[in-house]
Amino acid sequence: MAYTLDAKIPAGELSQKWSNHKAAIKVVSPANKRKLDIIVVGTGLGGASAAASLGELGYNVKIFCISDSPRRAHSIAAQGGINAAKNYQNDNDSIYRLFYDTIKGGDYRAREANVYRLAEVSNLIIDQCVAQGVPFAREYGGLLANRSFGGAQVSRTFYARGQTGQQLLLGAYSVLNKEIAAGTVKSYPRHEMLDVVIENGEACGIIARNLVTGEIERHGAHAVVIATGGYGNVFFLSTNAMASNGSAAFQCYRKGAGFANPCFTQIHPTCIPVHGTQQSKLTLMSESLRNDGRIWVPKKMEDVEALRAGKKLPSEIAEEDRDYYLERRYPAFGNLVPRDVASRAAKERCDAGFGVNETGLAVFLDFKTAIERLGKETIKQRYGNLFDMYEEITDVNPYEQPMQIFPAVHYTMGGIWVDYNLMTTIPGLYAIGEANFSDHGANRLGASALMQGLADGYFVLPYTIGDYLSKKIQAPKVKTDTAAFDEAEAGVRARIERLFAIKGNQSVDDIHKRLGLIMWDNVGMARTKESLERAIVEIQALRKEFYADLKLVGTADSFNVELEKALRLEDFLELGELMARDALNREESCGGHFRSEHQTPDGEADRDDENFSYAAVWEYKGIDNVPEMTKEVLDYEFIKRAKRNYKD
Amino acid sequence: MNFTLKIWRQRDAKSQGAFETYKVTDISADTSFLEMMDILNNNLIHEGKEPVAFDHDCREGICGMCSMHINGHAHGPSQAVTTCQMYMRKFKDGSTIVIEPWRSAAFPVIRDLVVDRGAYDKILQAGGFISVRTNSVPDGNAIPIPKKDADESMDAAACVGCGACAATCKNGSAMLFVAARVSSLAKLPQGKVEGARRAKAMVAKMDELGFGNCTNTGACQAQCPKSISIAHIARLNREFLCAKLQD
Fold first, then answer.
1. What is the DSSP letter of A473?
2. Distance from CA of B82 to the nearest CA of A (A)
3. Could you report the per-residue pLDDT of A201-216, keeping only the tens digit for each?
4. What is the C-alpha separation between B40 and B38, in angstroms, rounded?
5. Catalytically annotated residue among A72, A117, A339, A444
6. What is the pTM of this model?
7. Which residues, 6 or more positions from A211, have their beta carbon under 8 angstroms from its beta carbon?
8. Listed residue (A86, A2, A75, A434) closest to A229, CA to CA
9. CA distance A173 to B224
10. Is the dihedral of CA B66, B70, B74, B79 positive or negative?
């Protein structure tokens, strides 16, 4: 049965929708909040800010994270910054401009109302974080500093050196600690959600595994919030942290929650290139580097060959022999085009044979001009820690020679479908931050992930969840000895037993690496009908191999990292196929989703608004069955959609 | 490159641990230390043995999860990097590398190289925050903060909470960790309001959790992957004394 999707977008003027909605939704009295329990899974920017805010309101909150402390969630790795429409630079920024840039950056595949709300609350986030003691960069006059990011012509990005995500997370974690100390939030570190429990069609709790003891636990609540980030690790190699996974979201999908636009994956243009087969992780170089760095490859093939043979240093290639291809192709935005555009342009040059390293899969990011203009000291102040990190990893000094970079998987715009209240298709089950699909369309702009996580957690969910919980004020504590919990726990135990019983020959990593290659080669930066159909067949075969040949060591009732990884891989093996199916269905190119069949004569994405102006929401039908897709049609009431143009 | 690894193996908190010796071969110089551990673990799994448990996550030196004592140094012989940011080119081909968990009374071993650093969370819960409620805040630019103060606050805030300071200290003191948080907030006007209460509460919690006292050896600063300066300890002491004098 297809979904009946109601996005619950409030009526009225774009700028009034959120205010009107807040006025219309119900609130819960303080006395009743004390009686209501909420589970928040994940403690990154979304989860930590939501849990802390809900705790402050007086709800009983339980938080779960897979790391040893909430502070270590992958939000911490965001380097460059967070956007807000403060207009502190007096460069004519506004809520409308941030909204417009975000929706255009997402190639018109996000909801207008959600994106406008995101821009609207962006300013509150900066105020909130400053008050928490986040040490944002400041100017000599003591006021907040800004820098520029891709996809924008104004300077609206706030930052804390190259560690903005860390500092924002420490801010959210600190108010979370305040609530833990106050007893409104109870923390369960080293716990992994393995299933969501549904009773009478509503979310009522989770099954979690204590990762230290292996115990399977039941936790009941009146609402469950999924804040577990994205699923980029389906590609094995990505910039995501090693433990980042799509499993919590996938359990929701398995239990009936719609999964929207799974194929929308962001490939980040500035990562350190892959060095060999022993690699487990890719490292991002912040987008902020594109403020001052210029991207180029040689114009002449003989220079490319000389570079690869080590006969020439990049600094020895004359200015007129360099092809600053982003500046050439996109004069208006230059090196600051959005990520999808920059990544594809790098791929185009490398496919044409101009890749600058021995694998042919790298381009240069050069600071020579900036160092000449600003001096080495200024560059060091701005990017010192990133330059140090680059040198540590590659043994090359980026003050003297350009960095080598190449695109890598970084973020997933797709995720659990949510309505305007951030509720999934299952009542009482919410998804926030990267785990949902709602705000970035087909491509996310830099410095907007942090913005969305904190917008959802601090300023949206705490209000909208009250509307649902107002119906629960008479509800008793959720009992965990019910048939629904019995069944969910039995399912988790059976899953674990099944994996141990295989006793095959391949490790989790052996299989995961192969899945990653299938994904990168066929569902990566450029996709075709043939490649996607091939991916589906190959993933299905690999999944069979997984169930026949997995070698899992250790026991279920102990600290067992291999078991954790095996369970996550099992989900990735289904999620990868879902991504390929979604990409196959979407016969257009938009944002990060590029179908080679659909491009303009000059190689740009050819979007098809007539036929694909919708979010594709998938419904699970069983492991080997084709899922069913329902369309949420995207109405553009306020913006006139145009072909994305970063040229003039 | 080839290496001999002597690694601490311990089944759980209650078991007795011991060193085991392993060999890894054909390691590229560009491989990171933790990728080398991944290779070892994959080999062990193929031999039907349990892999070495170790904490890690972002592998970009920022999450603070990785925590290995390598050849007698927290996070290994390189200065100012976490374990995950060390590359095998830093080690001599053919050498023996000794890998242990953090050794600190307040960080009990969970398994192999994984320890429980929950004590650090508890210290921060005692007062490592500004009591601000969502939405009850002034404009971000309402209070100008001198750039120098904001920069110093950021220097201290760079702490990743990895535990290397306490694991390195011969007294098992967590002073650098506590000082980094206290100092980061003390340098900002919005953090000063609760300054006295914060310093006292965090120090009291640190003592209660079994961390030792600081005797100014500076070992923590030398091993800190984020080069947090012990000058922050001086600031903590000042904050603490002022707070006590106000009692």
1. T
2. 11
3. 999 999 999 999 999 9
4. 5
5. A339
6. 0.97
7. A66, A190, A191, A192, A559, A564
8. A434
9. 22
10. negative
